[in-house]
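Q: Hi! First time asking for a complex rather than a single chain. Here are the components, and I think there are three in total. Is that enough to go on?
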Amino acid sequence: MFIKNTWYVACALTELEALGDKPLGRTICNEQMAIFKGPDGKVAAVEDFCPHRGAPLSLGKVCKGHLQCGYHGLEMGVDGKTVQMPGQRVRGFPAIKAFAVVERYGFVWVWPGDQAKADVAQMPVFEFFDNPAWAYGGGLYHVQADYRLMIDNLMDLTHETYVHANSIGQPEIDETPCETKVEGDQVILQRHMEGIQAPPFWQMAMSANGLDPQAKVDRWQICRFTPPSHIMIDVGVALAGKGGFDAAPEHKAYSVVVDFITPETETSHWYHWGMARQFKPHDTDLTDKIRAGQGGIFNEDMEMLQLQQVNINKWPDRKLLMLNIDSGGVQSRRIIDRLLAEEHTPEVTA
Amino acid sequence: MFIKNTWYVACALTELEALGDKPLGRTICNEQMAIFKGPDGKVAAVEDFCPHRGAPLSLGKVCKGHLQCGYHGLEMGVDGKTVQMPGQRVRGFPAIKAFAVVERYGFVWVWPGDQAKADVAQMPVFEFFDNPAWAYGGGLYHVQADYRLMIDNLMDLTHETYVHANSIGQPEIDETPCETKVEGDQVILQRHMEGIQAPPFWQMAMSANGLDPQAKVDRWQICRFTPPSHIMIDVGVALAGKGGFDAAPEHKAYSVVVDFITPETETSHWYHWGMARQFKPHDTDLTDKIRAGQGGIFNEDMEMLQLQQVNINKWPDRKLLMLNIDSGGVQSRRIIDRLLAEEHTPEVTA
Amino acid sequence: MFIKNTWYVACALTELEALGDKPLGRTICNEQMAIFKGPDGKVAAVEDFCPHRGAPLSLGKVCKGHLQCGYHGLEMGVDGKTVQMPGQRVRGFPAIKAFAVVERYGFVWVWPGDQAKADVAQMPVFEFFDNPAWAYGGGLYHVQADYRLMIDNLMDLTHETYVHANSIGQPEIDETPCETKVEGDQVILQRHMEGIQAPPFWQMAMSANGLDPQAKVDRWQICRFTPPSHIMIDVGVALAGKGGFDAAPEHKAYSVVVDFITPETETSHWYHWGMARQFKPHDTDLTDKIRAGQGGIFNEDMEMLQLQQVNINKWPDRKLLMLNIDSGGVQSRRIIDRLLAEEHTPEVTA
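A: Yes, that's all I need. Here is the structure of the assembled complex.
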């Protein structure tokens, strides 16, 4: 069960554009979709099922904004209604589901649930996208694990010490207590480490930002979960004693780890990850270097999460521990559970 | 459920012969068979299960017409009875099923159902095999889809416009209405297109047959379904106005697409495809060229059918449309359903 | 269902040591284990499930004899109790199962069942390991088949004639009756062939041992099954008329085929195979040559057993024959069934 009356990242716009006149087939919250650009150039998403003979529409191609089935040429419109088909009157053809779509921040966002409730006003807002003072680079992983395991992973960064020992991990993460608070539907978990040596990834960022990579630093991690499954993590280092997170820009290297976690099925998800940074935003080589580094680091989590899922499948009744370090994931899951319950509560009208 | 009291193509004789002294293991209508040449050189088929310890007999080899199990040397006869086994008295060994076999037209045909009803007189008759005025070339595909999806495919050639756009497809197929009729157990669907440009495949055939490939032509497609799942399609082009299908041989390029569709399981089948042609029957280079072309074209259907099957599996309750263009498949399925019902009706004896 | 209150080979010590500071994950009788060297250098085995978040402990590493989870650093002790975890009090953490382990004969042995009953005195005893008069070489195969199919295979060597026709098989095996006897929990099946030509593998061994490979020989096979699933096979050839199995060492080439068959799941097992020999024990090149030969021969059984398993899965209700040649397997299975029943009989206390 997923929260479905909400916006999820379906794909990056670049993914869709790389396909030319082909649509993109993707499953979001168990809904199979064919995503394509309609007659006005706007992205649309419809069920990936041709009403004629059940062929996947995603095998077809886009002709003047209609999605032409690759089997017998039925042309599907952005609203899920058949536009035309050679030699046929199509008015009586059954419609397929069309999904509300928003293009924003370089991504295609879809609303997989009740279309009557799709509400653009509920789109999350991010200051760093489409902002010339910031740069963004990222990628996509397809992960064979419950999307909530990825939330757990990102809302407890003590795993960095073990999973990412050679890049961003360091013992001080384990040694420094974290603080978790819930504000409405948001969970915020933070950890501030003072007067430490920067780990390799941050030494690289310090050098890129003109700072001495060997200098002692204050390091912070502020994880922010918002439903359904977006996690933004303020991460950075400032020269020790300059104010940490609040230090002046010239004393720090600072960025936001961006995680859009989109459920595919109960045991798989699409993980759109990236990093937004405020320093050297025009240095595209640096963007590429960070993307490569981050991609490598995040790839280290894949095996762990996927085999954790295998283990949980084998021992479904075994209770897991919920320690203080797990509070970020625990609180996030509580919010998900509450919203799920609300979504499935019958509405009462006066 | 399959019509089982009937003849299916199990394999091409060349497939079996290519294996030397090894048998061929194949599943037909859920019946696992080991096919081999018996003591008289005639092809036989028995269950692929050694009565000794359950090893697949198809892993063994043929010794003087007996199928010797590759595990402990039990020798199976063409009648499903054990002939001998080192150091054993085999008379009490349980027999395995033996399937009636006919070798004809270059194929091995089997009767997977009630062996008491196997009747050579029910073998279909084809004029173009073993006929020096004709040439034949073909191949085999293993398709992960219900065999009836292949029947639908072949009994509605409007898909050529989309799936085979670069070879035999052309818009005129969509634009020209087809006519479907049922004659006993046979379904005939035909389409005649007049005064059109030949598509690439037929231009090649026209050149091969000494005709100007750029000339306007009359083109025909006459699909004939006969149970359980054989489809012969008269296809060809004649110079425009020369009589179409009935034109004199020197004005046309004409052939028969041969489709023997053999169910393997509920969601997979063996597709023996080929082309029989009346022109230049002794030109073996042309046979090879046509086979390569046809193989490439038919391969374009594989992905579509297999993913259509995946989609149907996911939405098993969703009704598909039955348009006029689908009438060939619809009528063919009706005949299959009627014969299936007949096969499962208890016989009444006076 | 497996006999679980007994010792199985979990792995070769060399397998574990090749992993350095990494543990070895392995499933034995459906029990998933992480195997590692504890603080005293002794091998330990615990459930492969971190009590914190369910990650496989086998993805972690060994730190000073504790198994550190690769996700968040929990350190597991050899007794299944958490030793420590950064920033946590671990006393209340749920314990996981720890398995009794014995290191002997170059292997790690585990007791997958009731740990209260684990009894080192029940370890099998082999004279040829750790004995300078003998040499041993072997390997490991992972087989997708019920472990009892491997017992059947090894307790009926008539299959050698068919499966291993080019190495150790010869028609005389089939032609010579075997004798089976049961002594307590042991099944002994023997076959003595006199005045025959040695097959290729034994010709090689004769040459290695300074005997004329073309000389007529007496050949023996004495298979000894002991529960749960160990099979030792005395195999060899002696110059004809010199006493066969009892001939003086200079007239024979003689060894013991060692088979430790460890169930993984109901339809898969770990097959530790090897050969112990009394001739030229210090010739490591010969050890390698025999290992390569034996590995190749035993690999010929893999396809047969795995496809036999597939066939048995398809026809689960079909009875298999139990011929005289099968008596070794039949008697071995009877002992397994009896011990299984005993293991599942409630104990009565006075």
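A: Chain B touches chain C at residues 32, 48-49, 51-56, 59-60, 68-73, 85-88, 93-94 (CB under 8 Å). Let me know if you'd like any chain examined more closely.
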